[in-house]
Amino acid sequence: MPNKLLFVMLLAMFAVQAQAGETAADNYKIYCVQCHGMEGNGKGVNIRDMSVQPRDHTDAKAMSTRSDDELFKVIKEGGTSINKSILMPPWSATFSDEEIRDLVQYLRNLCKCKYGS
Amino acid sequence: MVKETEVENIFKSMKCKLAVAVTVALLPLAAVAADGMALLQKDCTSCHNLKGPAAQTLQELMDRKGPDLFYAGNKYRREWLVSWLQKPQRIRPAGEYYGKHIKPGVKSDEVDAATLEKHVALSKGDAEALADELMKLRPHDDLIAREKIEPGTIDKQMGEMNFDKFWGCMACHLIEPDFGGFSGPELYTAADRLQPEFIASFIRNPQAWQPKTWMPNKGVSEGAIQKFVRYFVVLNKESENAK
Question: In the predicted model, what is the mean pLDDT of chain B?
Fold first, then answer.
């Protein structure tokens, strides 16, 4: 019986992953880390000459001022879509909506915060 | 066509295993020459994808050790290939792919130079032969054919404003050895290195070439793309003059 349960759980996990494409952790590692940093603290390898510094995703105070919808929008459509920097590009050609939703949740885990908290 | 002697030279320079060398030496030379590409593939494939397709998953992307070369003939300028293969210099400041060559630093993440490997340097003959083979690899003629490069020049400051301020590309690309980002290839040598149609096509739709590339599609307008191509020519000239 436990084996059967485990199998069903694994199958469910696989189904979720297949639907969502890449995991949020992997997407973050490849696409976001270049500017937002290996530790998500906004200190990416690219920041030296930037006129506007990338958001520190571990900054609960700043991150809690953004709703999930805003985070979704800025990832999909880029910084200018929420009146922020052009340096944050739109990722609509890279991520599916499902992957962006997963990334928003990933950001919530990084900041350990919620909107308005 | 690769000459027989050139194939032999390439083979020697790549330090192939003796057993393989003996086997090949026993083959008729004509057969070796006809199969020149197979030899090149054998020597380059440990780091480069010469057959395609591009990485379809992030795992495949992360496993890459060098840029894909299966569309080299659509991408590079032959003269540059010949020159670079004889005197290879780093193009991507954080290597390929960048995530494997960075580490947390004091002010920000830093390039971990100790993890970057040097590219093998070839003789002139080998470089010419290899460039000839690479230029045959053109699976994306269709993408290239869609691009029309309009002749013209651009003032450096205007080009820079377009690049840095309007489109934010300096975030990831160096436009001078000491200015810009590190995760993408340097661009002050791009005009020398790349076919202008490739530059235009890749900016227009990076994912058409590399579905998983960490370069975003910014929806750049046609006018801005033409400006980028001209700007890179200006940057390249300046970079040459600075030497």
Answer: 88
Which A-chain residues 68-107 have CB contacts (< 8 A) with chain B?
Answer: 78, 85-94
Task: Round to whole Å and give the CA distance between B165 and A4.
Answer: 57
Alpha-carbon distance B199 to B206, whole Å? 10
Outline where B27-112 has alpha helix (H).
Answer: 29-34, 36-44, 58-62, 72-75, 78-86
Tokens of A81: 């879509």
Amino acid, single-letter form, for residue B82: V
Average pLDDT over residues A89-96: 98
Give phi and psi for B27, each to the nearest 5.
Answer: -75, 150
For residue B103, the chain A residues in CB contact (below 8 A) are: 38
pLDDT band at A5 (very low <50, low <70, confident <90, very high): low
Distance from the B102 Cα atom to the nearest Cα atom in chain A, whole angstroms: 7
For residue B194 the two structure tokens come to 């790349």
**Contact flag A89-B214 (C-beta cutoff 8 Å):** no
Q: Given the structure tokens 């400051």, which residue do they identify?
A: B157
pLDDT tens for each residue of B17-59: 444 443 444 444 434 343 446 657 667 988 999 999 999 999 9
Burial of B212 (0-12, 13-18, 19+ CB in 10 A): buried
Closest to A73 in 3D by CA, of A58, A99, A92: A92
H/E run at residue B102: strand B102-103
Residues B137, B224: Cα–Cα separation, whole Å: 29
Q: Helix-strand-coil percent breakdown of chain B, rounded to 5?
A: 55, 5, 45
pLDDT greater at residue B120 or residue B8:
B120
Average confidence (pLDDT) over B48-73: 95
* A22 touches B at CB < 8 Å: yes
